[in-house]
Design brief:
Strand 1 and strand 2 form a beta hairpin. The chain folds into two domains: 43 residues, Single Sheet (Rubrerythrin, domain 2); 37 residues. With 80 residues, it is of the alpha+beta class. The chain has a two-stranded antiparallel sheet with strand order 1-2. The protein is 50% helix and 15% strand.
């Protein structure tokens, strides 16, 4: 199984029996969780990606509110 480091994008060939364990990238020393394909099938990987999308949507909505409040307070205080 080939695993790609999310930090430096280095690809490493890892034995299939190491699935679910962690290892350190040889290039950048980032700790990588080796995916376990069997566990992803049991838990339903699609539900996890939906949750991630909703988290991103929520963060963007909060950021939009913060920016809106910033400009509202700025306009009410009379500062240009």
């Amino acid at each position: 199984m080939i695993v790609e480091c999310p930090a430096c994008k280095a690809r490493t060939n890892v034995p299939a029996d190491k699935a679910g364990k962690r290892f350190r990238c040889r290039k950048c020393s980032w700790v990588i969780q080796i995916p376990n394909p069997e566990a992803a099938n049991k838990t339903g990987g699609e539900e996890g990606s939906r949750a991630t999308v909703w988290i991103v949507v929520g963060v963007l909505a909060l950021a939009g509110l913060a920016v809106g409040l910033f400009f509202l307070i700025r306009s009410l205080s009379g500062t240009n």
